[in-house]
Design goal:
The structure is a single chain. This protein is 25% helix and 30% strand. It is built from eight helices and 21 strands. The chain has helices spanning 30-41, 49-52, 85-102, 127-132, 138-147, 151-164, 382-389, 392-427, and strands spanning 44-46, 57-59, 72-75, 79-82, 122-126, 174-176, 183-188, 191-199, 204-210, 214-227, 230-243, 250-254, 257-261, 268-273, 275-280, 285-291, 312-318, 337-344, 348-351, 354-358, 367-369. It has a 17-stranded antiparallel sheet that branches. A two-stranded antiparallel sheet has the order 1-2. Strands 5-6 form a two-stranded parallel sheet. A hairpin with a 3-residue loop joins strand 3 and strand 4 (79-82). Helix 5 (138-147) packs antiparallel against helix 6. It is globular, with a radius of gyration of 23 Å. Mean pLDDT is 81; it is low at 1-26, 43-62 and 297-306.
């Protein structure tokens, strides 16, 4: 079985006599050239997987930390184990305070997206910026989708891009919830990024990313529900990619849900559950991946006594939608299966024996904030600015002021809605 990487810079062709064919010199993209320059200067490093739970080309600048597995260690059986004890201690103190004030609401799966939390456990970014960071592999893989002619090849790159994004933005620090009408602007390479908070309750964000060869739009409705010692996190809505090819090939992507255990005691462990579903609406092609599949990869299956890995996934590409209903072992031997997919979502994606993504070999293109955005941009939030400057007390004060404004605005909207309903009854 071939395990060659399909990432252009890493390919080595093998001739019939077993020797390596001289590699073709390929024109590097601007992002690749910049990466090589920074490697030479020592600004980039490869981080040991024993320290981060995975390897990734990262910048020494802390602003790239959210794109790596910094702070995590891999436990093959349990998942990603968070090791920042200082942050865990702060979070547990905050949760204990909430337990006393909110009581049983925290113990029965109630949503916490609208619960006020202390800024001591917050990240220095809004949820809009964090959401935009999920697309830093798009300039690589969406471009390959556009260039590929075979719909199956396009789908393979869509699968690789989707799985590659799973390890991004796993920071255990809470982002700032955007207020209604808040925006974020930035760029990922040549990809323009616009985000807006379009609903306060339920909290909903819309994203639009656009460049010459493709457009990505998404609706994110995040839900966070807590239980005695765990929490589940779901992103409802959709992600859609529209290629600017002749067929306007369109993909709809549904993401899995996540679980974090150990909020109050024990190890803090993160893992994904459920399925990834990708639909090529233009060519009636489907991909489905089952995460935390509870099985071994082909290579691991050769070694007896080795436990199945928590980060293992498997799936397939097919035109037969009915094949996806149960994803039983029988489905993977069906003549309707076009391609077989498996891998470790913190490490690699393999499709039909070829690696399409490897965390330590495929560089991402970092998200860069727009220097002069709209006045509604997250960049201008007083609570966020105060936290970035290191003033926790001022940040908490500004956060509470903004939350009170939001509550008053909601009361006014509810009052206007009641007045409208009353007027409609009078006219009747």
């Amino acid at each position: 079985v071939s395990t060659q990487s399909t990432w252009g810079l890493m390919d080595k062709k093998i001739q019939d006599d077993g020797s390596e064919e001289p590699e073709e010199k390929k024109e590097l993209s601007p992002e690749e050239k910049e990466m090589l320059k920074r490697l030479e200067k020592g600004e980039l490093e490869l981080v040991d997987s024993k320290k981060t739970g995975g390897k990734s080309a990262i910048n020494n600048d802390p602003k790239y930390e959210q794109y790596t597995l910094m702070g995590y260690e891999v436990n093959p059986k349990l998942g990603l184990v968070y090791k920042d004890l200082d942050n865990i201690s702060k979070q547990r103190k905050a949760i204990f305070t909430l337990l006393k004030s909110l009581g049983s609401n925290l113990l029965h799966g109630k949503s916490l997206m609208n619960v006020s939390m202390p800024v001591t456990i917050f990240d220095t970014m809004s949820l809009l910026e964090r959401s935009a960071g999920d697309y830093i592999y798009a300039p690589i893989y969406a471009e390959k989708m556009y260039e590929a002619e075979d719909p199956v090849d396009k789908m393979k790159y869509a699968v690789a891009m989707t799985v590659a994004s799973l390890h991004l933005n796993l920071s255990q620090k809470k982002p700032f919830n955007p207020i209604w009408g808040e925006t974020f602007q930035g760029k990922i390479g040549n990809l323009n990024v616009w985000c807006e908070q379009t609903s306060h309750h339920p909290p909903i964000s819309h994203l639009l990313l656009d460049c010459e060869h493709y457009t990505i739009d998404a609706k994110h409705q995040f839900t966070l529900s807590t239980y005695p010692n765990s929490a589940t996190f779901k992103c409802l809505g959709h992600r859609r990619i529209v290629l600017k090819d002749k067929a306007k090939t369109t993909y709809i992507i549904d993401f899995p849900w996540a679980e974090t255990k150990g909020f109050m005691f024990g190890a803090r462990v993160f893992s994904y559950k459920g399925n990834i579903r990708i639909r090529d609406k233009t060519n009636k092609l489907y991909a489905q991946l089952r995460l935390n599949a509870g099985e071994k990869s082909f290579a691991e299956g050769l070694f007896k006594g080795q436990d199945a890995r928590n980060d293992f996934f498997k799936g397939l590409i097919t035109k037969n939608k009915a094949l996806l209903k149960d994803m039983s072992r029988k489905a993977f031997y069906s003549k309707d299966m076009i391609s077989y997919v498996e891998g470790l979502w913190i490490d690699y994606v393999m499709i039909d024996g070829d690696k399409y993504w490897e965390i330590d070999k495929v560089p991402f293109v970092p998200l860069v904030r727009e220097p002069n955005p709209l006045p509604s941009d997250s960049l201008y939030r007083n609570d966020l600015k105060a936290l970035i400057s290191g003033s926790l007390e001022e940040s908490q004060k500004q956060k509470e002021i903004m939350e009170e404004i939001q509550r008053n605005d909601r009361k006014l909207r509810d009052l206007a809605k009641k007045k409208k309903q009353l007027l409609s009854l009078i006219h009747i």
